[in-house]
Amino acid sequence: MKSRERVMRAINLKEADRTPVDFGGTIVTCLDLNAHKRLKEYLKIKDGRDPIVDYTMGTVEPCEELMQRFGSDVRRVGLNVIPPKIVDNVYEGGFGIRYKKAVPHEYFDVCCSPLADTEDLDKLKMPDPDMPEMYFGLTDRARDLYENSEYALFADFGVPGFYETSQKLRGYENLACDLLINHGFLTALYDRLLELQKRWFGNYLDKVGKYTAAIGYADDLGMQDRPQMSPETYRQVIKPYHKKIFSFIHEKADVKIMLHSCGAIEPLMDDLIDAGVDIFNPLQTRAAGMTPEALMGKYRGRAVFWGGMDEQQILPHGTKEDIASEVNRLMDTMGRSGYVFGPGHNIQEDTPPESIVAMFEAAKVYR
């Protein structure tokens, strides 16, 4: 099979000839800036570009030579990146949220939550989803890849999800209280966010929807040992809004929705599927209840999983034998239907380049 057919069969829960592989096809299966530089140096790749595609995470889309070398079946057609104005390692992002660089790392953490001390939504700065700079040339790029390559195309992430955005706007403690005792405020906020997301995803899908297999939606709901809220709270407060935006996306284009949500989210997965999620990423296998065996035992034929290579321990600290064994386990357990293999998240600076090579070399053997 060609890459596109392989991915399309897998994400439609049909058997592919071999397990699809993704490296750099989404903004959460890429590399940290320094990891990218070290990997290119290790492999003696001369491409000098390191294009940051997400400044919050310091994420770089790998060069085409790397994606081809590692057999990636997916290519991203992400929105154009507008670099922020960084002063003293601080910049202001959407909604007036301020971020500070976690020196010496490439990540930027939230350092100012605009609604931490107020519930006045009229003071909230809303990002502009209609900025032409974000979409310039996007349709041509998607069409060219669709017509002149064999790859499956992934429409990356737009504005972050309801929970994640409100967490950054209000701060962790305030939002935890809002979820329990301040539903009126959250309803008013989420109504505004819903209209923003509709415009954002609508614009994006108008440009690339007919060429892409899937689109990303980011809303981190999990911790290492449990969800960040009870299933009851999720159902009452957040699920209705997920259902509305996912329905909008599905009606807008024939694409699968990939939810990026780190951590132990298994207790929420039935509700997320009911809300409209087709694909779960990153498949954080060390989080509680998220082993490949447990998930495929319960959700095989009902949901697609994307990612899975353990980046907490095995990839950064394991031997080549450890890495090959884990790749074999994932491919054997997850199979060739309902699964796309890839890193569990963006590969970080502490991962040796030889370990990255070992992962994808093993994938060629076991896929």
Give a quick summary of the entry.
The protein has 367 residues and is an alpha/beta fold. The protein has helices at 3-11, 33-42, 64-69, 132-135, 138-148, 162-170, 172-181, 183-208, 231-252, 266-275, 292-299, 314-317, 320-334, 353-366, and strands at residues 31-32, 52-54, 59-60, 74-76, 90-92, 98-101, 108-112, 152-155, 214-218, 256-260, 279-281, 304-309, 339-343. The mean pLDDT is 96.
Protein described:
This protein is α/β, with parallel strands linked by helices. The protein has a single domain (3-29, 71-77, 122-366), classed as TIM Barrel (Alpha-Beta Barrel). Helix content is 43%, strand content 14%. The strands form 3 sheets. Strands 4-8-9-10-11-12-13 form a 7-stranded parallel β-sheet. A 3-stranded antiparallel β-sheet has the order 1-3-2. A 3-stranded antiparallel β-sheet has the order 5-6-7, with no helix packed on it. The longest helix has 26 residues, at 183-208. It is globular, with a radius of gyration of 20 Å. It starts with a helix and ends with a helix.
